[in-house]
Amino acid sequence: MTTQASPIAAALCMPTASAPFSMTQECALLPIPADFFSSPTMLRGRKEAECCEKDPTWKQLLPYAVAMDESGHVYCYTRGAGGAEGRLHGNISVGLGGHVDVAPGPGESLEAVLVAECNRELAEEAGLPAAPIRFEGLICDPTNDVGQVHIGLLAIRQITAAEKAGMLEEAGIVEKGQFVTLEYLLREENFSRLENWSKTVVEFLARDRAQGWLVGAD
If the chain, 218 residues long, is cut into consecutive pieces of 10 residues, what is the mean pLDDT of each piece? Predict the structure, then answer.
């Protein structure tokens, strides 16, 4: 896990032109194209003159995993000051995950790398064991500086009661973690404090639950 004390030097990026990032002018969850995981990627520096943090022609790939318990309650937390992305400190988030600083090796698929990195982040940030991961969509937000250089890969991590009981908070990164209902997150006083990606994810989860996909309707 990246912290302010040990920031990663490079992040796995994909050219903006290689994926459907230009399909929206607002924060949105987009379908994953069939050829997405075969698109070219490159490790690019985060602190160099050509820093990928300031170059919107590249998107840093970030797994963004939502932990959901057996009742359909969603894990939310406050981003601590030890997180790598200072522009998000203090925001409420429902997404666990972070920058990927490894690239696919010979014969290794991009999807496999992202799944492994997603599980690593879930273990480090919340103490959750590795599990099968399926990415549900791409979170795109061209409305601010952070969103213009990042793309989120949404995953829903269904957790058991035993896993929930053993969850931990990574010091300085994840703070005030709790499981709450979607209704709680949709209340204006709470929704307004969510980071943009989380707002989009919460709205997506609410729509899917209304269609009968999610458990827990309290």
Answer: 51 86 80 93 78 88 96 91 49 92 94 97 95 95 88 96 93 89 96 94 89 48
**DSSP code string of the chain:** ---SSS--SEEEEEEGGGTTGGG-SS-EEEPPPTTGGGS--EEEESSSTT-GGG-TTEEEEEEEEEEE-TTS-EEEEEEPTTSS-GGGTT-EES-B---------TT--HHHHHHHHHHHHHHHHH-PPP----EEEEEE-TTSHHHHTEEEEEEEEE--HHHHHT----TTTEEEEEEE-HHHHHSHHHHTTB-HHHHHHHHHHHHHHHTT-SS---
Type of residue at 106: P
Tell me which residue has tokens 């903006």.
16
Burial class (CB in 10 A: 0-12, 13-18, 19+), 105: exposed
